[in-house]
Design a protein that fits this description.
The complex is a heterodimer of chains A (364) and B (636).
Chain A lengths: L11 H22 L7 H21 L2 H6 L1 H18 L1 E3 L2 E7 L2 E4 H18 L8 H19 L4 H18 L3 H20 L5 H11 L7 H16 L10 H4 L11 H33 L4 H25 L17 H19 L5
Antiparallel strand pairs in A: 1-2, 2-3
Chain B lengths: L12 H28 L1 H12 E6 L6 E2 L5 E13 L4 H15 L3 H10 L9 E4 L4 H9 L7 E10 L7 H4 L1 E4 L2 H7 L9 E5 H5 L1 H4 L4 E7 L5 E8 L7 E2 L4 H11 L4 E6 L6 E7 L4 H6 L3 H9 L8 H4 L8 H12 L8 E3 L2 E4 L2 E4 L7 E3 L1 H7 L2 H22 L21 H8 L5 H8 L9 H12 L3 E3 L12 E3 L4 H16 L6 H10 L8 E8 L3 H6 L2 H4 L4 E9 L6 E10 L3 H20 L5 H8 L3 H11 L7
Parallel strand pairs in B: 2-10
Antiparallel strand pairs in B: 1-8, 2-3, 3-4, 3-5, 6-7, 8-9, 11-12, 11-21, 13-16, 14-15, 17-18, 19-20, 20-21
Helix pairs in contact in B: 10-24, 14-16, 14-20, 15-20, 16-18, 20-21, 21-24
The chains are: A mainly alpha (364), B alpha+beta (636).
Chain lengths: 364, 636
């Protein structure tokens, strides 16, 4: 099946952008942790990057049409894994979302994100109508809703939410009836507004819900975390306080400054200039993904690439928005920058899918 | 290329381009968000970051010392540790509460109450669990550094007051600044938790004694632990104050009063310098210096003997027969009745239709002014009072310093009261009863004086009508000197009478006063004075009271005196309340012993009273027996 001359081609530009983002992340992880008990964390992150990179290379060599063929099996496996994680998974910060493999706790939901991208790509690529029907939308809703519900039970609102943009982006690209789109968006908005503004909930219930959904929160509460993050960002000014010199970061005022709030640490030490460079890097990454999608061999490949782009775009939006206080604290990491094994590996495996699609672009 | 992309495989290129616009929009929106924080509001957040990381810890300036007239230290400071409870982590505190309370020996209820009261304070402001940590407490904190990180030690300079309640009322005490004082100061002079003088000299001279707190700026991390010190502003200690008090004489005065209710004040009539001021019962200012518990405070406040009252300046009582000295001045100066006025005293007299008795039922016989002062003849002074009338009596009493504050440099001095016909009409809306003048003539009725007032008055008379403002601060200024012209003849006669009280046979202060000085070979110091005895409650008050309660009230006995006869250098007033013995039996020997101590010190001899105090700790009891056993107790 494979033609030797086209069997393996990496998107070097994409890889370059990702590697720059990873390097910025490593530097900021070093700056945030070098003086404390967590020092040396950047080496662990480097190891995750290495593992992720290997995973990317491996995945880019597997024919994605094979993966699409197995999507039902993969989907069932992922549901099973989520159920297992809920029942026997190891508990961290009050949430069951890790399964221990080879002595390393892996976050199952990160793998599920990858599988949902594959499953939805398969579903969307098989739609032959100009517009998605209502039945399509219900099926897509169920496909995403079941694993999202299981992830919500862990509980992990952020990752559950991260599945939704894959469906939205896919539906948009596959073609959606305006009435349906308005209906779905209205339904989503009503649920979201009701949930967050608490028309049905009293404030203490909201508090409990928030605590339930975000067990990692320190006792000082999300308000304190966001304020400290805003102080870090705001006090950075245009040029920043300098590498390793951010008081909010170095003295520990910024919560989980090496992971979820790494952009706050960067904003404090590198200023608006650093943020500008970083966000432009992400913009370049996303545009490069869209470019790959445009050049995909078939619709399935395009949906795969755009699924990856949707998740990355969502994570950047929610994470950066959280750091400046525009989004709730949901524990969504910044791709390739935040410290974390599972999220880093997911990022590279997702890249592997993209490379895979690219490799096959000239293959008939 | 295009030929192998079938129609069913057509990619939605237009939508993909739309998606890339969305991604660009997302980036722009996020950048606007960061711009607002990092450029528009960066100053505001930079301030917040500084406040976050830099904490100013006050370095408490020690208060100025309080010294006696010879520079001997009366009030000092000592370093001490307070144990603080950091309130950053309420959950941790809840968990550790039992361990903390048992370890430090505080009650859980008290600590919870403190935390409740502090709940509106900023989180970084700790609660003081224990203001004065013992060695055991310090060891507890040190050994639990790891598992009880919320406990912290703070070194403070604490007030060290002398033992045995020494000078308690004069010194006063310090305490945390009250909300009222905070409001008054407008927020810049005091801050919450500041220690300020609350009573006595500590309050009077708070501005001198208070230093300027220093400041240590430290960088703290997110849990409030100091990481490193930025800079220190050294505290400026408060300035010391030197008093006019002679600690030895003060000690003598306090020893004299031990076990009694009363006051003793001594001053130099030539300057107004207060050499001793004692009031008993007293309290221990050290109880206030740490933190007085509600119970201790209630006990002190509700004690019927009023230990917090500085009787030397706050007890307002009838002066009894001491008033006869002022009356004598009034008589001689106004010429009513004439100086050679004399009466026959049969032991009683009828005035305005009411029979009045002399304290000496057998009567004093034929008495002139001199004998009347020496023997304290009531009948003589009833007659003088009747002739002088209320307006003259009231004028001279006021002119000689009664009914108004002396201006001594202590807070809360009382003014006393000199009645007058105007006053009665203003307050009671009726005319002055002439019979009241008769009571006033022997220092009874609605007249109220404080010991310091009476002392200033008698000292001024002995000083030929020059009244110095009593004071406690060595460098007191400006000093008010009041002159009231009194003829030399008047002073001569009155002082002669007072000399007779102590030094003539039959003088009301002779039998118990003179021997004390004579035994110490000090009979030549020319100690002059006047005894006084007054009912503890007004006649009206007695009438209002149930009969059973009346017997409970004894006499207030006075002795006010000075030495020597001319150009006096020492004056002393003694008040003993609620005694069942009369003045000659109680107050006069106290005054005599004080004068003896004064001269023994002046002549460089050992002060007998102090040696006695050291040798026999139970002196109070012994002295009481001695007094009780004294003969001729009904001596006025």
């Amino acid at each position: 099946m494979k033609e030797r001359e086209h069997s393996f081609e990496l998107d070097w530009w994409l890889l370059f952008i990702v590697m720059v983002i990873c390097s910025v992340g490593l530097l900021e992880i070093y700056s945030s942790t070098h003086s404390g008990p967590l020092h040396g964390m950047q080496w662990k992150q480097l190891a995750w990057i290495g593992i992720g990179f290997a995973g990317m290379l491996a995945l880019s060599r597997i024919d994605y049409s094979g993966l699409l063929d197995q999507s039902l099996l993969l989907y069932l496996l992922s549901l099973g894994a989520l159920a297992v994680a809920l029942v026997v998974g190891s508990k961290h910060f009050g949430a069951r979302r890790w399964i221990e493999i080879w002595g390393v706790d892996l976050q199952v939901s990160e793998l599920v994100k990858l599988i949902i991208i594959i499953v939805l790509a398969r579903y969307f690529s098989e739609v032959r109508t100009e517009r998605l029907t209502l039945a399509d939308l219900v099926k897509i809703g169920l496909l995403v809703g079941v694993p999202a519900g299981l992830i919500l039970l862990q509980p992990d609102l952020g990752t559950a939410m991260a599945l939704v943009p894959v469906a939205i982006a896919g539906a948009f690209l596959a073609g959606i009836n305006w009435k349906h789109a308005v209906g779905v968006l209205t339904l989503g908005a009503v649920v979201a507004v009701a949930g967050w503004n608490g028309h049905f909930l009293k404030s203490y219930q909201k508090q409990r819900l928030a605590t339930f959904l975000n067990p990692e929160e320190s006792p000082r509460g999300a308000g304190y975390q966001i304020l400290q993050s805003e102080i870090a960002v705001g006090s950075g000014g245009f040029w920043g306080k300098g590498f390793g010199k951010g008081s909010q970061n170095q003295l520990g005022f910024v919560p989980v400054r090496y992971s979820d709030f790494i952009l706050a640490a960067l904003a404090e030490e590198q200023g608006f200039f650093g943020v500008l460079i970083t966000l432009l890097l992400y913009l370049a990454l996303l545009l490069r993904l869209v470019d790959n999608a445009q050049k995909a061999k078939d619709r399935a490949g395009m949906f795969l690439v755009m699924g990856v782009a949707a998740i990355f775009a969502f994570q950047v939006l929610v994470n950066a928005g959280m750091v400046i206080g525009y989004m709730p604290v949901t524990g969504i990491p910044l791709p390739f920058m935040s410290y974390g094994g599972s999220s880093t590996i997911f990022g590279f495996l997702a890249l592997g899918l993209v490379m895979n699609v690219r490799t096959k672009r000239f293959v008939n | 290329m295009a030929n192998w992309i079938g129609s069913d495989q057509k990619l939605p290129q237009g939508r993909l381009i739309l998606v890339s616009y969305v991604v660009v929009l997302e980036t722009i929106l996020l950048l606007i968000g960061f711009w607002k924080l990092q450029i528009v509001q960066s100053g505001h957040f930079a301030d917040l970051a500084e406040k976050n990381r830099i904490r100013s810890i006050p370095i408490i300036a020690p208060r100025g010392k309080i010294l006696d007239r010879y520079g001997r230290v009366i009030v000092d400071n000592y370093p001490s540790f307070s144990i603080l409870l950091l309130r950053d982590d309420p959950a941790q505190i809840q968990k550790d509460l039992p361990q903390i309370t048992t370890g430090l020996g505080v009650t859980a209820d008290d600590l919870k109450q403190q935390l409740l009261e502090a709940r509106d304070e900023p989180k970084f402001q700790p609660v003081i669990v224990k203001p004065e940590a013992s060695d055991a407490d310090l060891a507890f904190v040190e050994s639990h550094r790891a598992d009880l990180p919320e406990l912290e030690l703070m070194m403070v300079q604490r007030r060290k007051y002398p033992p045995d309640d020494f000078m308690a009322h004069v010194i006063g005490y310090v305490g945390e600044v009250s909300p009222e004082q905070l409001a008054q100061s407008g927020g810049d002079r005091y801050k919450p938790g500041d220690i300020v003088g609350k009573a006595g000299l500590e309050r009077q001279y708070n501005d001198i004694l208070t230093g300027t707190d220093g400041m240590r700026r430290v960088i703290v991390n997110s849990i409030g632990k100091p990481v490193r010190t930025l800079d220190d502003t050294e505290p400026i200690p408060g300035k010391p104050i030197q008093l006019t008090i002679d600690a030895d004489l003060q000690r003598v005065a306090e020893e004299e009063l031990t076990g009694k209710i009363g006051a003793m004040v001594a001053l130099d009539p030539r300057t107004g310098e207060t050499l001793a001021m004692a009031s008993r019962p007293a309290f221990d200012p050290n109880d206030f210096a740490i933190r007085i518990s509600r119970k201790e405070w209630t006990d002190l406040n509700d004690n019927p003997d009023k230990p917090l009252l500085n009787r030397a300046i706050q007890a307002q009582l009838a002066p009894g027969s001491v008033f006869k000295i002022l009356e004598s001045v009034a008589m001689l100066e106004s010429g009513v009745p004439p100086p050679d006025f004399h009466v026959f005293c049969p032991g009683y007299g009828v005035f305005y239709g009411q029979v009045r008795h002399d304290w000496y039922p057998k009567g004093h016989g034929e008495v002139s002014l001199h004998e009347a002062i020496v023997h304290s003849c009531d009948i003589f002074f009833y007659n003088v009072g009747e002739r002088l009338g209320i307006d003259r009596l009231s004028y001279y009493a006021t002119a000689l310093g009664l009914g108004k504050r002396t201006g001594i440099d202590l807070p809360s001095e009382e003014s006393g009261l000199v009645p007058s016909s105007d006053w009665v009409e203003r307050v009671y809306h009726h005319k002055w009863y002439p019979g009241s003048t008769i009571s006033l003539a022997i220092g009874q009725g609605p007249i109220e004086v404080t010991p310091i007032q009476l002392l200033r008055s008698i000292s001024g008379i002995a000083m030929d009508g020059v009244f110095y403002q009593p004071h406690l601060l060595k460098d007191f200024s400006p000093m008010k000197v009041t002159k009231f012209p009194i003829s030399q003849n008047t002073i001569e006669q009155v002082v002669d009478g007072m000399y007779g009280v102590v030094n003539e046979d039959g003088g009301t202060g002779h039998e118990l006063g003179y021997p004390i000085l004579a035994q110490a070979k000090l009979q030549d110091v020319q100690f002059c004075g006047k005894t006084g005895t007054a009912q503890t409650i007004s006649s009206q008050g007695l009438l209002r009271m149930a009969a059973a309660e009346r017997g409970h009230f004894g006499y207030n006995t006075w002795f006010v005196g000075f030495a020597p006869k001319h150009n006096p250098e020492i004056a002393v007033a003694v008040l003993v309340q609620d005694t069942h013995l009369e003045a000659g039996g109680v107050a006069a020997p106290l005054a005599a012993r004080f004068i003896k101590a004064y001269y023994q010190k002046k002549l460089g001899q050992p002060i007998e009273e102090l040696q006695l105090a050291q040798a026999v700790p139970q002196k109070a009891g012994a002295r009481a027996q001695e007094v009780a056993a004294a003969p001729a107790a009904r001596n006025q």
